[in-house]
Amino acid sequence: METDGNSLTFIALFLPFVAAALAPALTRRMGHKVAWVLAIVPALLFIHFASLVGTVASGEVVTGGHRWVPSLSVEFSWFLDGLSLTFALLISGIGTFIVLYSGGYLKGHEHLGRFFSFILMFMGAMQGLVISDSFLMFFVFWELTSITSFLLIGFDHSREASRRSAMQALIVTGMGGLALLAGLLVIWNATGATSLSGLLETDNALRESALYGLAFVLILGGAFTKSAQFPFHFWLPNAMEAPTPVSAYLHSATMVKAGVYLLMRLNPVMGETAVWETVLPLFGGVTLLVGGFLAVRQSDLKLMLAYTTVASLGLLVMLTGFGSEHAIEAAVLYLIAHSLFKGALFMVAGIIDHEAGTRDVTRLGGLRKAMPVTFGAALVAAISMGGLPPLFGFLAKEEIYYALGFASLWSAVFTSVAILGNALMFAIGFAVALKPFLGAEVKTPNHAHEGPPLLWLGPVVLAGASILAALVSPLTHRLFSIPMASAVAGEPLDITISLIPSIGLPLYLSLVTVALGYAIYRTLGDVRARVAAVLAAIGWGPDRGFDQVLRGIVRGAHGATGLIQNGRMETYMTLTFGIIALAFLIPLVGAGEMPAFPQLPVLTLYEIVVLALAVIGLGAVLYADDRLTAIVSLGIQGFAVALIFLLFGAPDLGFTQFMVETLSVVILALVMTRLKLAKSDHRPTGEKALDVTVASLCGIGLMLALFKVTEISFDPALSVFFTEYSRVIAHGRNIVNVILVDYRGVDTMGEIAVVMAAGLAILALVRVRLGRRVQHAEPQIEVEGRETVA
Amino acid sequence: MIETALSILVGIFFAVAVYLLLSKHTIRIMLGVVVLGNAANLSIFTAGRLTREVPPVIPPDLYVPEIATANPLPQALVLTAIVISFSLFAFLLVLAWRAYQDLDTDNTEEMRIAEPKADPLPPLSY
Amino acid sequence: MKTLILRTIAPYLAALMMIFSIFVLLRGHNDPGGGFIGGLLAASAFAIYGIASGVASARRAMRFHPMAIAGSGLAMSVLAGLASILFGVPFMTGLWAPPIPGIDFEISSVLFFDIGVYLVVLGAITSVALALEERDDE
Q: Which residue from B minimizes the CA distance to A691?
């Protein structure tokens, strides 16, 4: 289906990256006010995507693309249905206010331009991720979000905590990315689809494939690391080292939802199986509880929110995998609600931090007079997070309880989990929104006052959106929730829930949740102390485990390097030649290729003499105990080789060998006079035995290989060609020379270049300045230092 | 099968070369390099089959040799190989000599500048 | 090694070897010989001359730096290969001048290629040998 939006969507894919490239230069010129200019980019994207809402809501799918690598059926294609479009709107909409907020939050920061660049790059990557169709494009954008997340978490790279968090996030999500890639390849193998839209058309092919289990595990590896599911949840709270705009944007509203997006996207083709409906709710439920309890433990506003984000992601995964229509509807509603209220709350936490100078909830209080606007936005967001009317969060929570219910023991368990998790989040939400603002005024590091509009605009708009979306719920459902839920379910769904509560089980469950949440809120100090005590008793978590694994890898690599590359040349040589010997012998023996016992040759007297001479020379080289003997015996074996060449019809070789041996002896003599030759080549007995064994095996191996080679009948085609045409077309009677300078001239050219290079290298070595004696124990830095002094 | 005799000789050359290369003393390793070059050249020569005393040269009055000559192809390969292995040998020799001058030893066990014995653990922090 | 006999005989021996090396080079295309062997012979000639009469006089006798000779040899070989481009045939195609009546010798691009090989081997190896001998004098 080609629509007019095509070329615009194509531009939209690149626009954030273009803006990212321009951001540093613009920031240098305009300072923090550049935020107003840069925010135009996401605003334009939002308008573009908003213009497609009508089309998509009517059930159509907007697609388009270009051929990228046609021979491998790789396409640069996109695909906008209800799911993608809602995500795209959230990304560009929240992104607009994040850019503005960043301008206020990082005003005057020396790397503000770089920050804008990174965050716009992320925006482009995230947007690409949710609207891409082909697997390859999807994967590339997926990895790009991991990389930009790494850059943003490590933005303040002069602090070690920042670097550690950035590395951790990159390693965890990067490993997940590899799993995802493998998973996509498996899916491709199983179904033949190379794009998401193609995959969605295959219906049951993946579920019925034998590869389903493998694909399931790999896809989950990608989704769970990205969306911080237990036990990979630890990187997300650590990512709070990033500046607050990043936490608000990447690590609550958008990027961490990529895993959920993936699961939702694949639900129509992978869901509704027993394993899907067991594993997802289990991991999601555990993550919900773990995140909730860890959030209570914290007193830092950002960390409290971060752990509730983990909990919310758990809830989303749980609902996505639960397998009923209502659960999917609930997941969709909660996802939208969460993006709005959590983004707002993070920005509020950032404003408090920015204006009051601390974000420790125990050291804040009474800010409502100083910061009324922020307080208002925080309150609205917290009400939505707590699931109270008249906010969108209320609709989401009601739908959750509809979906879970008490139909069976299984759903009763998850209802309980959801009640407990929601109550915890209720308590945290209000703790973040109320504690800093209510009560007596507490003296804060900075004199607190309301932040500039750049800062409060974002939270206010997002909070307002939470109200509006709930008030006009039929419209919200028709434009966003229903198309998105239908895309996740793979079939048309209908959502009718509105602010008018219907008396029934969900409402009672809501009341239980609120009561429980209020109780936790009132006793938050106690609960925090108790959770802290429990955690101290456990004393170990995946976060520390991560450190230990990384250290283990470094130590292991160091140990392995020390073992294999132990600095002893002898070990390297013995290993190399040992393997060479085996490479000769194993195929000969193992594959039954042993040569037959060869015919013994009849040799003439002078042939025997020459061969004997060579052997004698070699023996003398082995046993030489002074320079002269060594040089002379080396000469003997060399001249014997020359004689062999002469005897078997190779006068050119013979002469060359003679000349080379002469020159070898000359330069050997010249160098040897400056070197001492150890009297004898003493080796301890064990070592000697090993060396002799390796050497003999090598010799025997090569000999047997040559026996085998000469046993096979010879194909002289090439030699015949050279011989026949040497004079006819190359005008030369010495065939060897003709091959060298004519037939294989390019080879020879390469070889003389090597000779030339060797000559230059030797000259450089000889001429290099003397007088620098390296001391063995000295560290290398000192040697270099001395070099510059001298 | 004249090749049999040369195959055995090549085996001996190779064994002697390997034994020398396994020495700790750079000078003996250099001797090993020379012998290894000869072993390689002879093995190529042998694998191309041997012919006694008839060089691959076409007589002045003919366009194609009358009788079977020695195989010219391995000869061309070996000829360049000889010169190259000589260049390599010269380079290694000078290198060994300079190493001896700078490090005061010809024993590879004691040449530990690049790979020191007590190599410290890389930093474990971030 | 500077015996009187060697010192006296060396210049003549070296000159003879040089002439022989050129002979070997030129006959290479039709009889055993060629650039590699010729180059090695010439390099030995300079090495012997250097040992006998001192490196300085050997360098004087060469007129050019040996690596410069080697470099020009490499350039000559490349150019001999490139000459084929002028005639619109592939790189390294042998080009032969029409035979001169009465002289049993043919000029060709292949000959210049071989001379290049000769110069590279001569230059590079002489350079090494002389450099090593030079150290000895210090």
A: B19
Domain that holds residue B69: 2-110
Contact A599, B4 (CB under 8 A): yes
Q: What is the CA radius of gyration of chain B?
A: 22
Q: Determine contact: B92 vs chain A, CB below 8 A.
A: no
Distance CA(A428)–CA(A421), nearest Å, equals 11
Q: Which residues of C touch A766 (CB under 8 A)?
A: 128, 131-132, 134-135
In angstroms, the CA A176 to CA A68 distance is 26
Binned at pLDDT 50, 70 and 90, residue C1 comes out as low
Domain encompassing residue C100: 4-137
What does the block give as tokens for A692?
């002799």
CB within 8 Å of B22: residues ≥ 6 apart? A570, A573, A574, A577, A691, A694, A695
Phi, psi of C101 (to 5 degrees): -60, 140
pLDDT tens-digit readout, A309-349: 999 999 999 999 988 888 999 999 999 999 999 999 999 99
- Among C44, C128, C136, C138, most B C-beta atoms within 10 A, so best to mutate, is C128
The whole-model pTM stands at 0.71
Domain count, chain B: 1
A306 Cβ contact list (under 8 Å, min separation 6): A236, A237, A239, A240, A247, A251, A252, A295
ipTM value, please give it: 0.93
Residue A90 one-letter amino acid = L
Please check whether residue B116 lies inside any domain of the structure. Answer: no
Residue A5 banded pLDDT, cuts 50, 70, 90: low
Beta carbons of C32 and B79 less than 8 Å apart: no
Phi and psi of C89, rounded to 5°?
-115, 160
Secondary structure (3-state) at A77:
strand
pLDDT digits (tens, 9 = 90+) for A632-673: 899 999 999 999 999 998 999 999 999 999 899 888 888 877
* pLDDT attached to residue A180: 96
Average pLDDT (A107-130) is: 93
Helix (H, G, I), strand (E, B) or coil at A123: helix
The residues, any chain, with a CB within 8 Å of residue A779's CB and separated by 6 or more, are: none
Question: Residue C96 — φ and ψ, nearest 5°?
Answer: -120, 130
